[in-house]
Amino acid sequence: MYRLIALFALLLTVHPVMATEAGWALLRDGGQVVLLNSAATNGTSEPANFDIEVCSTQRNLSARGRQQAKRIGALIFARAAPVEEVVTSSHCRSRDTGFLAFGDEDIEIWPALNNSEPESAAAEENVAAIKERIDAYSGSGNLFLITQEQVIQALTGARVRDGEALILSRGAEQLSVAARIRFN
């Protein structure tokens, strides 16, 4: 009985590592589209006075999140994953994740990656625009789209942790997740 419990515990701890290594292998080959959830923040919901143009009215990266974003970039470059494009939502936490991870060179801010009211016309338009961009991507490096969990879930149905990356499998009618990389 103890052996069975130990085997089950081992499987639970090994699985994320295997998923992460599969993700790194895909990224090293390039040509991938990656949805990256912004790094850890200082809260769980937007303040009542939220304004997309004013960072002080938003949920921003925590000290842990700032370190996590730097670690994301360091690991991507250390693992020789080619970066072709980095695109973020207008949310300050996504922009800061991008700038801290990839530097300020050529980061595009794209409002289609912003959170929208779920099941609204704006959300549907944003999801359609993002899917179109994902399907059209044909670069030799990797495309990183930095956004929030709500957007990632609308695109893939998958839940993500702070700073987690989903490498997408494209070509089918529905986007699916080929691999995950967890930057804890």
Task: Please give a structural write-up.
With 184 residues, the chain is of the alpha/beta class. The chain has one domain (2-182): Rossmann fold, CATH 3.40.50. The protein is built from 5 helices and 6 strands; from the N terminus they run H-E-H-E-H-E-H-E-H-E-E. The protein has a 6-stranded mixed sheet with strand order 3-2-4-1-5-6. Strand 5 and strand 6 (176-182) form a beta hairpin. The longest helix has 28 residues, at 2-29. The radius of gyration is 17 Å and the shape is globular. The two termini are 32 Å apart. The model is unreliable at 4-18 (pLDDT under 50).
Strand order, sheet with most strands: 3-2-4-1-5-6
Number of helices: 5
What is the CATH superfamily? Phosphoglycerate mutase-like
Reported for the largest beta sheet, the result is: 6 strands, mixed
- Which second-level CATH architecture applies? 3-Layer(aba) Sandwich
CATH class: Alpha Beta
Radius of gyration, Cα only, in angstroms? 17 Å
Strand content: 15-25%
* pLDDT averaged over residues: 86
In helices, the fraction of residues equals 40-55%
- Uncertain regions spanning at least 5 consecutive residues: 4-18
What's the count of strands? Answer: 6
How many domains? The number is: 1
